[in-house]
C-alpha cells in the first residue's frame, strides 16, 4: 500500500489530537457537561450515526469507489462493528464488555459510597457520589429501587436511610437526621447488600443500580469509539471522495437559489432584525415571526427545503464531513477534560490497532 498524504492524515489525526489535548490540558481547565446534547444524543449514540451516514454515502455515491467493492466495504464495516461491540457493549446481560473487564481486572469496582465517611459530625453526601445534582438525585432513586427490589424486606435501617437521602436531596437540607449508625457503616451495608445480590461487572450495570466506577484502569470508551468512528468515516471517504467532489461541483443551481432567496430573506421583512436582535421570550419570538410577510416566509421554507435536499440527498458527503468534525471536536474535549493519559492512550490504542489494520490492509 502506498503512503499518500491522505493516508498520513488518516493515520495521524487521532494520535495528534490526543497529543494536542494533553498539551492544552496543562494550561486550560475545562468544565464539561457530561449530559449536554452533543454527548447524550450524538457521541453516546455515535456508532448508530456513523453507520447511518457512512452507509448513506456509500449508497448515494453509487457504491464503493474505484478501489472498493461491496464485499470489501462490508467486511471493513463488519470488523469495526464487531470490535466496537465486543469492546464497549455486553454480549449478554451477565457478560462484561472488554473495557470493563480491563477495569475490574486492574482493581476497579462499583462503589456505593453514598455518605461522606470522613469524621464530620453532620451527615452529608459523599462528594464523589456522582458529579452533578441531577445525577446524584437520579442515582439515589435507582439505588433505592434496587435495594427495594433486591430484598423483599430490606432492613428498616437501610430503607429509612435511603428514603431519607432522597428527601434530603430534593429538599436541599444541610444534614441528615442522625441514625444509630455511622456513615461508613451505612455505606458498607448498602455496598455489601448490592454486591451480594448481583455480580456487578459492567459500568452499565453499576450505573443502573446507582453506583459509580472507581479504582482500576478504565480505558476511555469515548476515545475508543471516536477514534473508530473518525477512522471509518475518513477511511471510507477515500473511496467516495473524488466522485463526491465531482457531484458537489455540479450543483450550481443550488448556489444560485441560495444567493437569490438568501438575500431576499435576509434583507426584507424584518427577518434579519429577528436574528440580530432575538426577542427575550419564545412568545415574542413567534409573534414577531408572524409579522414577517408570507412571501418571505415561503422563500425561507423553500431555502430550508432546498438546503436539506442539497445536503441529505444530493451531497451526503457534507454530512460525513460534518459528523467527522463533530467527532473530532468531542475527541479533543475528551482528551482535555476526562481520564488519565494512560486511560486515554489505551482507549486510542485499542481502536487504532484494529482500525489501522483495516485501513492499512483491507483497502
Ligand atoms: C450491503 C449492505 C447494505 C447495508 C445498507 C444499510 C443501510 C444503512 C442503515 C444503517 C443503520 C445503522 C445501523 C447501526 C446499528 C447500530 O450501531 S445501533 C447501536 C448504536 N449504539 C451506539 O452507537 C452506542 C455507542 N455508545 C457506546 O459504545 C458507549 O456509550 C460509549 C460511548 C463507549 C461510552 O461508554 P460508557 O460506558 O458510557 O463510558
Ligand atoms: N467529549 C465529552 N463530552 C462530554 N462528556 C464526556 C466527553 N468525553 C467523555 N465524557 C464523559 O466522561 C465519562 C468518561 O467517559 P469514557 O469512559 O466513555 O471515556 C463519561 O461519563 P458518563 O459515563 O458518566 O456519562 C462520559 O460521558
TrEMBL record:
It is found in: Endoplasmic reticulum membrane. Belongs to the FIT family. Fungal FIT2B/SCS3 subfamily. It catalyses: (9Z)-octadecenoyl-CoA + H2O = S-(9Z-octadecenoyl)-4'-phosphopantetheine + adenosine 3',5'-bisphosphate + 2 H(+); an acyl-CoA + H2O = an acyl-4'-phosphopantetheine + adenosine 3',5'-bisphosphate + 2 H(+); hexadecanoyl-CoA + H2O = S-hexadecanoyl-4'-phosphopantetheine + adenosine 3',5'-bisphosphate + 2 H(+); (5Z,8Z,11Z,14Z)-eicosatetraenoyl-CoA + H2O = S-(5Z,8Z,11Z,14Z-eicosatetraenoyl)-4'-phosphopantetheine + adenosine 3',5'-bisphosphate + 2 H(+). InterPro entries: FIT, SCS3. GO terms for cellular component: endoplasmic reticulum membrane. The chain crosses the membrane at residues 46-62, 74-92, 222-240, 317-338, 344-362. Its EC number is 3.6.1.-. The active site is at 222, 339. The keyword Hydrolase applies. Keywords: Endoplasmic reticulum, Hydrolase, Lipid biosynthesis, Lipid metabolism, Membrane, Phospholipid biosynthesis, Phospholipid metabolism, Transmembrane, Transmembrane helix. One of its GO terms (molecular function) is coenzyme A diphosphatase activity. This is Acyl-coenzyme A diphosphatase SCS3. Fatty acyl-coenzyme A (CoA) diphosphatase that hydrolyzes fatty acyl-CoA to yield acyl-4'-phosphopantetheine and adenosine 3',5'-bisphosphate. Preferentially hydrolyzes unsaturated long-chain acyl-CoA substrates in the endoplasmic reticulum (ER) lumen. This catalytic activity is required for maintaining ER structure and for lipid droplets (LDs) biogenesis, which are lipid storage organelles involved in maintaining lipid and energy homeostasis. May directly bind to diacylglycerol (DAGs) and triacylglycerol, which is also important for LD biogenesis. One of its GO terms (biological process) is phospholipid biosynthetic process. It is a multi-pass membrane protein. It comes from Lachancea quebecensis.
Amino acid at each position: 500500500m502506498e503512503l499518500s498524504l491522505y493516508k498520513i492524515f488518516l493515520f495521524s489525526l487521532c494520535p495528534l489530537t490526543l497529543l494536542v489535548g494533553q498539551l492544552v490540558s496543562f494550561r486550560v481547565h475545562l468544565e464539561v457537561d457530561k449530559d449536554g446534547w452533543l454527548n447524550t444524543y450524538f457521541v453516546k449514540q455515535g456508532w448508530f450515526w456513523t453507520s447511518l451516514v457512512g452507509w448513506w454515502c456509500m449508497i448515494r455515491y453509487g457504491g464503493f469507489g474505484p478501489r472498493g467493492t461491496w464485499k470489501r466495504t462490508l467486511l471493513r464495516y463488519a470488523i469495526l462493528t464487531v470490535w466496537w461491540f465486543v469492546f464497549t457493549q455486553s454480549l449478554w446481560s451477565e457478560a462484561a464488555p472488554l473495557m470493563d473487564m480491563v477495569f475490574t481486572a486492574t482493581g476497579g469496582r462499583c462503589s456505593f459510597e453514598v455518605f461522606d465517611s470522613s469524621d464530620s459530625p453532620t451527615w452529608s453526601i459523599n462528594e464523589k457520589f456522582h458529579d452533578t445534582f441531577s445525577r446524584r438525585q437520579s442515582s439515589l432513586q435507582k439505588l433505592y429501587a434496587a435495594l427495594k427490589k433486591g430484598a423483599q424486606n430490606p432492613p428498616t435501617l437501610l430503607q429509612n436511610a435511603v428514603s431519607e437521602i432522597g428527601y434530603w436531596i430534593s429538599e436541599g437540607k444541610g444534614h441528615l437526621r442522625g441514625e444509630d449508625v455511622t456513615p461508613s457503616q451505612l455505606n458498607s451495608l448498602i455496598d455489601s447488600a448490592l454486591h451480594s445480590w448481583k455480580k456487578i461487572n459492567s459500568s452499565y450495570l453499576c450505573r443502573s443500580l446507582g453506583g459509580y466506577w472507581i479504582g482500576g484502569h478504565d480505558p476511555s470508551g469515548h476515545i475508543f469509539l471516536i477514534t473508530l468512528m473518525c477512522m471509518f468515516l475518513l477511511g471510507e471517504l477515500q473511496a467516495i471522495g473524488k466522485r463526491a467532489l465531482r457531484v458537489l461541483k455540479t450543483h450550481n443551481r443550488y448556489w444560485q437559489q441560495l444567493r437569490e432567496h438568501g438575500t431576499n430573506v435576509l434583507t426584507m421583512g424584518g427577518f434579519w432584525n429577528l436574528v440580530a436582535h432575538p426577542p427575550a421570550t419564545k412568545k415574542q419570538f413567534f409573534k414577531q415571526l408572524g409579522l414577517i410577510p408570507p412571501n418571505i416566509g415561503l422563500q425561507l421554507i423553500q431555502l430550508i427545503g432546498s438546503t436539506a435536499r442539497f445536503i441529505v440527498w444530493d451531497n451526503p458527503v457534507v454530512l460525513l464531513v460534518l459528523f467527522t468534525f463533530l467527532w473530532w471536536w468531542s475527541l479533543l474535549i475528551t482528551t482535555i477534560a476526562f481520564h488519565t493519559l494512560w486511560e486515554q492512550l489505551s482507549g486510542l490504542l485499542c481502536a487504532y490497532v484494529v482500525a489501522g489494520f483495516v485501513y492499512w490492509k483491507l483497502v
